[in-house]
Amino acid sequence: MSRKLAFTNEDQVVIKDIPGIQDLTDAEYISMYQNLGFNDVIIVDNIPPIEYQCAWEITNGNITINIDKAKGCKLEILQKEIDLQLSKLNVKYLKTIANDKISTSVKDRIKYLSDLPDIVNSKTTFEDIQNVVIGDWVEPDISELPMDTSTIPKMFTTTNESETSTTSSQYVQKLRLNFTPETDNYFVWFYGEVYTSNRSKPVKTRIQINDTETIHESSRIPMGWKSFSGEYIKHFTAGSHFIDLDVAAEGNSVSIRRARLFVTKIVL
Q1: For residue range 184-213, what is the model confidence (pLDDT) as tens digits?
Q2: In CATH terms, is domain 155-265 a member of 3.40.190.150?
Q3: Which of 169, 179, 229, 236 could make an S-S bridge to 191, C-beta 3.0–4.6 Å?
């Protein structure tokens, strides 16, 4: 590995390659960067793993690892994969419910991924932090899962598959889901397909809970029919609630079809 010049710049350790054939001595290289205003200038033969650069510090002439910062680096490394897997698992979980089946392995996997940040934060050495990885998992075949209706939470759903159009600039209700949940956390999912008669004018869509809480709002110009969808986790209190899927135009005629709303209790 080539020798590196390292220095601190705004609390971040920066490294620079030193040419194999150099005109300056080590001391002259260090002095040059010190004169440029950089702090803690050193020359090193080896550096810690580059993916943990956000945790590097220069201490007593060496690059060291700040454990608390290393935890943050590790969480950043893991978070994208955790988010991607959780998104896929939510879909898998919904499919098991739709097929009147419950997969313990799916629920266990969701909990495992959700607990990973706590696992990282519990580590006390850099080696232990490095060793935290997302373990392999075999996705179950829904068709082979046993039936288990005893723990399936109550679901609420409504659809309007027909096509409707409007020129109103004010939101027009396309679909409403009325439901009466128990007090708990719920998974909300919505879907629809939109179209505009004028490709320079957008279609506006909105999802609102109880006419007070907007959980989705967008303005888009679709090329032909274009789908939109999303998900949201909401704590509902016991009693009557409703969710609206609304659409509006901006100086044009817009259409919507295949509008769907789905709510289910989260069971882990």
Answers
A1: 999 999 999 999 998 889 999 999 999 999
A2: no
A3: 229
